């Protein structure tokens, strides 16, 4: 069986934590990590704080006996007690009980938010996501404060046609409140059958309006890359949404088109990028680095194996800035870490998500699967990123109500309007790369 550094086909789903943006409503919902197929990929998912522990309840009349792993008598005893005595025993579903037991087994590993059990439905969802074709309304969601906010709306999507805007906060789905739910949980409420209708209630912070939209779900082709020349500059903004199959090729095409159009510098926007196939991460890094280490594999035997740039990918050495945030995870962190370690470019924004586990997929008989951590990955400097993230070289936070600006939002602006765009991270990147248009004290 091959390893995650040699992926094979669309899999998918990182779980969007605190500020991780998950391509949602596009069925880009990330169930617990970026998924894998028979070969696997790196997977980010939401690390949860460990639950507080308390002493186990004691039974004065009982004698403690060691529990032997593989001895299922104890499990059978517990299952029988539940089936005979649970107040809702007539409504018990054996499938859900089995899945719950497997989830508990995986969670007991302590690799919270990374190793994960997926139902057959979740496996199918993840396989669609990194293939770039999803069913939904076409928005990118993230978490801001305690709410789920629309980070961006895909051009040509049903959400765009309905009037949903970046910055809108989703408060209801089909008349059910979603306050307190994580972005991927909101996504699960919104996604459904192609051609069916979902009602989405939002609050628009810019106006205070409360609005409801009835939107028909569609099958959507999600491009991995969008780009534009920043008006009034020779800087090209390259936005990479995820590391899906073919993402590096799409980025190479955009990069070369920008160079042909006069670009003298690049901003690589990896904000909210949940990751994906690691071979795509190697090729993306190779577009800007040559003869360098992209990341280091650390095996269970403590062996460290450097993974080099792809010599078949042509790199460019034009000035570069990379933008990251708390939603930058997995393969996106590999790229940011490689560029930072090589001192190729400043990394601007906020500390990244902190994915550091390589998952290998194990398919179960009914189509469900376990994604199991079998390796860790380190930066070229040998730093472990798990639960720590990539620290930017230039720290620039976004406010709680601020969302990243998409390339298409800049495309039609007049040069004098760019400075008024509210995106401090983009503004700082432009100050560095185009000081004549955006004068500052930037190095």
Please outline what is shown here.
The protein is α+β, with helices and mostly antiparallel strands and 443 residues long. Helices cover 23% and strands 23% of the residues.
Describe the structure.
By secondary structure, the protein is an alpha+beta fold. It has a domain at 225-355 and 378-433: Alpha-Beta Complex (2-enoyl-CoA Hydratase, Chain A, domain 1). It has eleven helices and 20 strands. The protein has helices spanning 73-85, 94-107, 120-129, 158-162, 183-190, 247-260, 278-286, 331-341, 407-411, 415-418, 424-433, and strands spanning 22-23, 116-118, 133-136, 139-144, 147-153, 169-173, 176-177, 197-204, 209-216, 218-221, 225-229, 235-240, 265-269, 293-298, 304-308, 320-324, 347-349, 357-363, 369-378, 394-395. Strands 1, 4, 5, 6, 7, 8 and 9 form a seven-stranded antiparallel sheet that branches. Strands 11-12-13-16-17-20 form a six-stranded mixed sheet, with helices on both faces. Strands 2, 14, 15, 18 and 19 form a five-stranded antiparallel sheet that branches. A hairpin with a 5-residue loop joins strand 11 and strand 12 (235-240).
């Amino acid at each position: 069986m091959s390893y995650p550094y040699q992926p094979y086909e669309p899999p998918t789903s990182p779980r969007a934590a605190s500020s991780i943006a998950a391509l949602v409503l596009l069925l880009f919902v990330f169930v617990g990590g970026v998924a894998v197929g028979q070969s696997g990929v790196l997977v980010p998912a939401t690390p949860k704080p460990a639950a507080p522990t308390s002493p186990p309840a004691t039974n004065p009349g009982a004698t403690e006996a060691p529990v032997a792993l593989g001895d299922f008598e104890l499990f059978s005893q517990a299952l029988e007690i539940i089936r005979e005595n649970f107040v809702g025993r007539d409504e018990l579903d054996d499938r859900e009980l089995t899945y719950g037991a497997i989830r508990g087994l995986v969670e007991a590993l302590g690799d919270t938010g990374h190793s994960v059990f997926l139902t057959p439905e979740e496996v199918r969802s993840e396989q669609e996501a990194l293939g770039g074709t999803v069913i939904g309304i076409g928005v990118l969601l993230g978490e801001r404060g305690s709410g789920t906010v629309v980070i961006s709306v895909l051009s040509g999507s049903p959400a765009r046609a309905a009037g949903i805007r970046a910055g809108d906060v989703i408060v209801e789905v089909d008349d059910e409140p979603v306050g307190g739910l994580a972005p991927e949980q909101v996504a699960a409420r919104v996604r459904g059958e192609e051609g069916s209708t979902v009602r989405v209630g939002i609050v628009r912070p810019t106006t205070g309006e409360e609005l409801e939209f009835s939107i028909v779900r569609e099958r959507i082709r999600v491009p991995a890359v969008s780009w534009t020349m920043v008006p009034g500059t020779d800087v090209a903004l390259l936005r990479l949404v995820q590391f899906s199959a073919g993402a590096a090729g799409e980025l190479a095409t955009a990069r070369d088109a920008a160079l042909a159009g006069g670009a003298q510098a690049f901003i690589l926007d990896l904000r909210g990028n949940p990751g994906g196939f690691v071979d795509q991460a190697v090729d993306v890094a190779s577009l800007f680095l040559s003869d360098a280490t992209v990341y280091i594999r650390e095996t269970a035997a403590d062996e460290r194996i450097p993974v080099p740039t792809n010599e078949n990918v042509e790199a460019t050495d034009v000035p570069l800035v990379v933008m990251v945030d708390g939603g930058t995870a997995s393969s996106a962190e590999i790229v940011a870490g490689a560029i930072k370690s090589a001192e190729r470019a400043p990394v601007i924004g906020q500390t990244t998500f902190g994915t550091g586990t390589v998952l290998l997929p194990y398919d179960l008989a009914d189509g469900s699967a376990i994604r199991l951590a079998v390796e860790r990955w380190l930066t070229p400097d040998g730093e472990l990123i798990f639960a720590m993230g990539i620290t930017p070289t230039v720290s620039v936070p976004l406010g709680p109500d601020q969302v990243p600006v998409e390339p298409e939002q800049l495309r039609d602006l007049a040069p004098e309007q760019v400075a008024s765009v509210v995106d401090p991270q983009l503004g700082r990147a432009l100050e560095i790369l185009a000081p004549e248009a955006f004068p500052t004290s930037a190095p």
